[in-house]
């Protein structure tokens, strides 16, 4: 299955669903060896959301993601719906 690219929305979704397991560690996007595809959203929200993911790593506060939204989220939902159905 070939997704166009990884979305930060997908990462946030995984974090929300796994947060109760405690201590979920997500790698930095600049890990070595570099990831093949760096997750991103649209140009409008990517840097803001990357910043919040960094804050989450430091604080482990899942509510940082509560208020996030962007017009690209609807696009992401359509894309993942293809794979879920
Ligand atoms: Zn966006």
Report on this model:
With 85 residues, the chain is an all-alpha fold. The chain has one domain (1-18, 39-85). The chain is 45% helix and 0% strand. The chain has three helices and no strands. It has helices at residues 8-18, 46-59, 72-84. It starts with 7 loop residues before the first helix and ends with a helix. The mean pLDDT is 84. It binds zinc ion. Zinc ion (ZN) binds next to loops.
Largest sheet: none
As a whole number of angstroms, the C-alpha radius of gyration is 13 Å
Give the beta-strand count. 0
Pattern of helices and strands:
HHH
Strand and helix layout:
Layout lengths: L7 H11 L27 H14 L12 H13 L1
Bound molecules: zinc ion.
Keywords for this structure?
binds zinc ion, mainly alpha, globular, 3 helices, 85 residues
Q: Short summary of the structure?
A:
This protein is mainly α. It is 45% helix and 0% strand.
